[in-house]
Design brief:
Layout: H1 4-11, E1 15-18, E2 21-24, H2 36-48, E3 55-64, E4 74-83, E5 87-96, E6 99-110, H3 133-143, E7 158-163, E8 177-184, H4 192-203, E9 224-235, E10 245-255, E11 258-267, E12 272-284
Antiparallel strand pairs: 1-2, 2-4, 3-6, 3-9, 4-5, 5-6, 7-8, 8-10, 9-12, 10-11, 11-12
């Protein structure tokens, strides 16, 4: 059986079917629809394949347009918008069943020195002192298996350790802030572009949940409808996605059935390596409109 980390690497190893056109598949089991982080990572891979090796992604802005179908391949079409002296711009559209399910713009830059500053990393327990989210969810699943239908909990290519995790079954209102350690479950090759694509995959894991915290709701409730609407990232400094990274998240606002979320990502030594923002649908239905 292929190790989870190898499955992730294979997931991000797209097939070039024609110039600027790439084909990707989804895991054979787990999610009911394509995980947003998968599309983010694969779209970044597709764009990176068309860019010179001396340039790295520094920002991306994507929109989730339709739910992805796990059962059919995804076609990624790359538009080569601009090739400048220092910056390169690409646009990627992900297509299934003849329709766009996701679009993203990515900017790449030649590595160069310049002015530098950052916010300090918060003081938190080390990852060794925090329980793995998978162990917590397995305990919960044993008590309420019906509520985890469609959520992969067996093996996965990432480790995620929430600091002071919320109780998904008895959610209480609390400040819209959360922090977690995260990394891949195995060693990755020494390829910064691959680490960026993997971090894009990781960054979608819990960000939208932050907006639920001040309302005392959980995505496990059948009358709660949640979905990512957009996602943006900025890569500030080199990093490794197979080393522990601290994801510091907050949600400044929710309105119009949408929750807005921000995240700062630090390496274990306190270096701010990336930032992310996401807005997501966060709709509460009446019991008569139960979404189960």
């Amino acid at each position: 059986m292929t190790a989870p980390i190898e499955q992730l690497i294979n997931l991000l190893n797209l097939e070039e079917i024609e110039k600027n056109h790439y084909r990707a598949t989804s895991p054979s089991e787990g999610w009911q629809r394509v995980y947003g982080g998968q599309v983010l990572g694969q779209a970044l891979v597709a764009a990176s394949r068309t860019v010179e090796a001396d340039r790295q992604a520094h920002s991306l802005h994507g929109y989730f347009l339709r739910p992805g179908d796990m059962k059919v391949p995804i076609l990624y079409k790359v538009d080569r918008i601009r090739d400048g002296k220092s910056f390169t711009t690409r646009r990627v559209v992900a297509i299934q069943h003849g329709q766009a399910i996701f679009s993203m713009s990515i900017s790449f830059q030649v590595m160069e020195e310049g002015l530098s500053h950052q916010f300090d990393m918060p003081e938190v327990p080390p990852p060794e002192a925090v329980r793995d989210e998978l162990d917590i969810r397995k305990e919960q699943m044993a008590k309420h298996p019906e509520l985890f239908e469609g959520h992969p909990l067996s093996t996965r290519p990432i480790e995620f350790r929430l600091i002071d995790p919320a109780d998904l079954f008895n959610p209480v209102k609390q400040a819209p802030r959360q922090m977690a350690w995260m990394r891949t479950s195995g060693t990755l090759p020494n390829d910064l572009r691959l680490h960026q694509c993997v971090l894009a995959y990781l960054s979608d894991w819990s960000l939208l949940d932050t907006a639920t915290l001040p309302h005392g709701i959980s995505y496990l409730q059948h009358n709660i409808q949640m979905a990512s609407l957009d996602h943006a990232m900025w890569f500030h400094r080199p990093f490794r996605a197979d080393d522990w990274l601290l994801y510091v998240q907050d949600s400044p606002s929710a309105s119009g059935a949408r929750g807005f979320n921000r995240g700062l990502i630090y390496s274990r030594d306190g270096t701010l390596v990336a930032s992310a923002t996401q807005e997501g649908l966060m709709r509460v239905h009446s019991k008569e409109q139960d979404t189960k």
